[in-house]
């Protein structure tokens, strides 16, 4: 089951996509088509990264005990958790795309 925050974020992103596509359509120069083509190309480029990242995430959940992960990066881990989380986030393939 998805959390309310996840559902809200999904609805918000969907709404923004519709609004921006509509604005591009009303420019009248085919910008909405170019935007959708660009989104499709980006999706094709990112999809393999997301696929393998999800496999890695799933395997980590199965192979590393939850208590150990909470000890490393949980609320009581302090600065060590921030450093570990930053390093892990920095080496994941999605990080550059999220910041772009």
Automatic annotation (TrEMBL):
Record keywords, A-Z: Membrane, Transmembrane, Transmembrane helix
The keyword Transmembrane appears for this protein: yes
TM spans (from-to): 6-26, 46-64
UniProt superkingdom: Bacteria
Protein name: Permease
Originating species: Flexistipes sinusarabici
């Amino acid at each position: 089951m998805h959390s309310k925050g996840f559902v809200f974020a999904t609805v918000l992103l969907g709404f923004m996509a519709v609004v921006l596509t509509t604005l591009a359509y009303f420019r009248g120069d085919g910008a909405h088509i170019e935007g959708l083509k660009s989104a499709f190309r980006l999706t094709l480029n990112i999809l393999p990264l997301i696929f393998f990242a999800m496999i890695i995430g799933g395997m980590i959940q199965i192979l590393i005990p939850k208590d150990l992960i909470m000890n490393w990066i949980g609320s009581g881990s302090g600065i060590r958790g921030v450093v570990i989380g930053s390093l892990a986030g920095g080496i994941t393939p999605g990080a550059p795309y999220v910041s772009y």
